[in-house]
Specification:
alpha+beta; about 25% helix; about 15% strand; globular; binds zinc ion; Znf_CHY_sf; Putative CHY-type Zn-finger protein; zinc
Length: about 140
């Protein structure tokens, strides 16, 4: 009887663990001495939300000055509302290339043609659809925040 009860308990425990298992195992990420926060899964800034070949940049958030791979990472881990970078501060280095570890200003990133100037790594062009989550823009999306 005792053995049965234990087996049942073990079964329950493994079921619960299986359900909570993340898509990809989390990795503590640091690139050239810069910590990347959020749900990172490798050392090139990929995260559980965005992890294609091209997802190799992290964004420093104005609110906490910490690098996160994406908006969702910040949302799930930070204890505050995100702030976007105002246009007046677009010459701040707030983009990190996960491949070579160089930091780009927001201006340089937006003018980069989705290629790292330093190591020529390709960035995900789809990120531009989410600029309004990180940077001040003129598009109506801004009010969605
Ligand atoms: Zn923040
Ligand atoms: Zn993420
Ligand atoms: Zn690079």
């Amino acid at each position: 009887m005792k053995h049965l009860a234990f087996s049942f308990f073990f079964f329950l425990t493994t079921q619960v663990l299986a359900q909570q298992a993340p898509l990809l195992p989390l990795v503590k990420s640091e690139i050239k001495g810069i910590n990347i926060y959020g749900k990172t899964v490798d050392n090139q800034t990929r995260c559980q939300h965005w992890h294609s070949d091209l997802d190799v940049i992290a964004i420093k958030f104005k609110c906490c000055e910490k690098y996160y791979p994406c908006f969702s990472c910040h949302e799930e881990e930070a204890d505050h509302k995100p702030q976007v970078w105002p246009k007046a501060e677009f010459d701040t280095k707030a983009i990190l290339c996960g491949v070579c570890g160089s930091e780009l200003t927001i201006k340089a990133y937006q003018a980069s043609g989705n290629t790292c100037r330093n190591c020529t790594a390709a960035f995900n062009p789809g990120c531009s659809k989410h600029y309004h989550l990180y940077f001040e823009t003129d598009t109506p999306n801004k009010s969605d925040l």
